[in-house]
Design a protein that fits this description.
The protein is of the alpha/beta class and about 270 residues long. The protein has helices at about 15-30, 40-50, 65-80, 105-135, 155-175, 210-215, 230-235; strands spanning about 10, 30-35, 55-60, 85, 135-140, 180-185, 250. It contains seven helices and seven strands, in the order βαβαβαβαβαβααβ. Bound molecules: nicotinamide-adenine-dinucleotide. Nicotinamide-adenine-dinucleotide binds near residues 38, 39, 60, 190 and 205. Belongs to the short-chain dehydrogenases/reductases (SDR) family.
């Protein structure tokens, strides 16, 4: 018996990377899943791969109506909503403030914050009434960039710090009926795209030497797969196993916060 038997979840950005791994894991744990995803191609593949266990909506998290639509379709198909996972985001490819052309700052800010921050607000607002009916919960994907500099440029880092604020504020606002938590993963080789407003809409994070970077900046030193992070979401979504957790964020970035000042961590003959 899975940890999410009989549960129904909505996951945004479920078409690839972490979101798709979450769709797969939630179904394995016994849940039915609604997905909001902007790529038509990925939506088609989800429907083909997961059949009657998923309901898909092609749309944009930055539009409230698309969030309302995935909640509506999910409840129509599966009868309830227990978990909303806000996950869709874009990355800024660590673009420094000094390198952003003056006329691009405005559209870049809007694109990044409309997807990474307003997208989660839209989802929470669209889901809140259904979640209250089931005593459900929200889980937001944060990032190491929600805690430390250098995992993005100022716009991505600020957007993920804003998500930390949303977890805390909504945990306060939605208590006691709805729990709100976060998961802060580290790097993964996914299709994570850049902002179209600075010409990076077709570039993805997998084009970088992530394994080398992770070796340098985490104590566990291993570049993990999206599936390696899914257990944290299952735990937080599980009513039986996380009844006491709200406003919590699981840092699972391979130990960036315990790297210390030594040139290399560990090194003992263990
Ligand atoms: N990949 C990493 O190194 C990394 C590290 C830390 C945190 N994260 C976070 O993990 C989450 C998932 O990212 P991923 O790495 O799996 O990337 P991904 O691009 O593979 O998955 C994100 C999905 O969201 C979709 N999407 C993007 N913008 C959308 C929009 N406006 N509306 C609807 N769907 C949209 C994409 O099409 C994609 O399918 C993000 O919140 C990201 O910030 C990623």
């Amino acid at each position: 018996m899975g940890w999410l038997e009989g549960n129904v979840a909505v996951i945004t950005g479920g078409g690839s990377g972490l979101g798709r791994a979450l769709v797969e894991r939630f179904i394995e744990e016994g849940a039915k899943v609604g997905v909001l995803e902007r790529s038509a191609e990925k939506v088609k593949k989800l429907a083909a791969d997961f059949g009657e266990n998923v309901v898909t909506v092609e749309g944009d998290v930055s539009k409230y109506e698309d969030n309302a639509s995935v909640v509506r379709e999910t409840v129509r198909q599966f009868g309830r909503l227990d978990t909303f996972v806000g996950n869709a985001a874009i990355w800024d490819f660590s673009t420094k403030l000094v390198d952003i052309p003056e006329d691009r700052l405005d559209p870049l800010f809007d694109e990044m914050f409309h997807i990474n921050v307003k997208g989660y607000l839209n989802g929470a607002k669209a889901a809140v009434k259904e979640l209250a009916l089931t005593g459900g919960s929200i889980v937001f994907t944060v990032s190491n960039a929600g805690f430390y500099p250098g995992g993005g440029g100022p716009l991505y880092t600020a957007s993920k710090h804003a998500v930390v604020g949303l977890v805390k504020e909504l945990a306060f606002e939605f208590a006691p009926k709805i729990r709100v938590n976060g998961v802060a993963p580290g790097a993964m080789a996914t299709d994570l795209r850049g902002p179209g407003s600075i010409g990076l809409g077709e570039t993805n994070v997998s084009s970088l030497p992530l394994a080398d970077l992770i070796k340098q900046c985490t104590v566990l030193q291993e570049l993990c797969e999206p599936a390696d992070y899914t257990g944290h979401y299952v735990l937080l979504a599980s009513k039986d196993n996380s009844r006491t957790a709200t406003g919590a964020i699981i840092n699972c970035d391979g130990g960036m916060g315990v790297r210390g000042l030594a040139e290399t961590a560990g090194g003992n003959d263990l």
